[in-house]
Amino acid sequence: MRVRHSFLAAAISIFAFPLLAAQTPEPARLPDVDKRLQAVGDRALEPEREAAVKEMKRRINRCEVHIDPLLQTPKFVYRKGRTGFLTKPDPAFEAVPPQAVPAQIVPPRVRLNPVAVDHERPVRNFLAQHAAAFGHGA
Predict the structure, then answer these.
(1) Distant-in-sequence, close-in-space partners of 11: CB < 8 Å, separation ≥ 6
(2) Global pTM value
(3) Number of domains in the chain
(4) Is residue 97 part of a domain?
(5) pLDDT tens for each residue of 75-88
(6) Dihedrals phi, psi of 79, to nearest 5 degrees
């Protein structure tokens, strides 16, 4: 029995170690066929857009803006530390306090706010406020 186990262990070690040495080949990278950036080159941000981006950074505390090199527009806007939001809360999203309506009147999972809420409104407002930076409004 002991001989059988040692023979099995020897066979595994002889045949398994070469398998560990095998590596998958590195896939060949495809060439970058987007020639637009080469045609555009390094260009400075337009003065009006640069002023609008600076104004956005001034209004929003700890705001960072990454500019797309091809389109010369903000491609990523966020707050440093990824804390907080870029906009203030929208009053249309605030619901009626639960204490104001008795539980017998409103069934569970029913929206208490009768105003039809446009869920894209905060984004539209943000784009409208900073239209000069983005090059378009909402």
Answers:
(1) none
(2) 0.56
(3) 1
(4) no
(5) 999 888 867 888 87
(6) -100, 140
**Is the pLDDT at 113 greater than 80, yes or no?**
no
Burial of 12 (0-12, 13-18, 19+ CB in 10 A): exposed
For residues 20 and 12, give the distance between their C-alpha atoms in angstroms, rounded to a whole number: 12
- Residue with tokens 């002991």, as numbered in its chain: 2
Show the tokens assigned to 21.
């040495």
Examine residue 31 and state whether it is found in any structural domain, yes or no. Answer: no
HSE-CB for 111 with a 13 A CA cutoff: 8
Which residue is associated with the tokens 């896939």? 27
Confirm if 102 and 112 have CB atoms less than 8 A apart. no
> For 33-63, b where at least 16 C-beta lie within 10 A, e where not — what string?
eeeeeeeeeeeeeeeebeebbeebeeebeee
